[in-house]
Amino acid sequence: QQQVKQSPQSLIVQKGGISIINCAYENTAFDYFPWYQQFPGKGPALLIAIRPDVSEKKEGRFTISFNKSAKQFSLHIMDSQPGDSATYFCAASIRDDKIIFGKGTRLHILP
Amino acid sequence: DAGVTQSPTHLIKTRGQHVTLRCSPISGHKSVSWYQQVLGQGPQFIFQYYEKEERGRGNFPDRFSARQFPNYSSELNVNALLLGDSALYLCASSKRMTGTDTQYFGPGTRLTVL
């Protein structure tokens, strides 16, 4: 099964709050899990990525939590800012293979 | 350094026509991938080219074809356009072929089929 399931579809968070986006996968062969951020009129840009041998990765205000046994991973955005308002995609891939994207989460941060 | 560039930005075609989309990768990148992004969905993989050879193909009909040139730029061709081909077509480049290598996306070509 190649699918990556992402939730929620949309999310509204107050400025300064924590935004949490969840993803689940079936294929245990996936070994790379990137998150992409896309602004209107732009292509997706890599935000942060994790491999399954690590349970958490933090870069600035962005953290990926990875649960290998549950086949789930999530993106946490701390101290969310209006500039974080965008569509976020989780994704997964196997070495030397295509990237499979989730359907996306539209995040809106209230000023 | 310039990022991934794509042309044209927007395109309007009618059903049955043919379209060619172009992509220039980041300098030094040898791999180019094409994705289709339908409104409200995540990008779906169409093709990957590395060193001018097709290295991967997604679940798209034979109406879709692509090629990569000696300078690593790429073209995506779609024949016999259908209404359902309306989408944002994204090109991504990376240094190597592996799925774990960072892919840098261009701004896309918005194709509308009437």
Can you tag this structure with a few keywords?
heterodimer, A: 111 residues, six-stranded mixed β-sheet, five-stranded antiparallel β-sheet, 0% helix, 55% strand, globular, B: mainly beta, seven-stranded mixed β-sheet, four-stranded antiparallel β-sheet, 11 strands
Describe this structure in words.
- The complex is a heterodimer of chains A (111) and B (114).
- Chain A is mainly β and 111 residues long.
- Chain A is 0% helix and 55% strand.
- Chain A is built from no helices and eleven strands.
- In chain A, strands 2, 4, 5, 9, 10 and 11 form a six-stranded mixed sheet that branches.
- In chain A, a hairpin with a 6-residue loop joins strand 4 and strand 5.
- The relative contact order of chain A is 0.34.
- The mean pLDDT of chain A is 93.
- By secondary structure, chain B is an all-beta fold.
- Chain B contains no helices and eleven strands.
- In chain B, the strands form two sheets. In chain B, strands 2, 4, 5, 6, 9, 10 and 11 form a seven-stranded mixed sheet that branches. A four-stranded antiparallel sheet of chain B has the order 1-3-8-7, with no helix packed on it.
- The radius of gyration of chain B is 13 Å and the shape is globular.
- The mean pLDDT of chain B is 93.
- Classes of the chains: A mainly beta (111), B mainly beta (114).
- Chains A and B meet through strand 5, strand 9 and strand 10 of A and strand 5 and strand 10 of B.
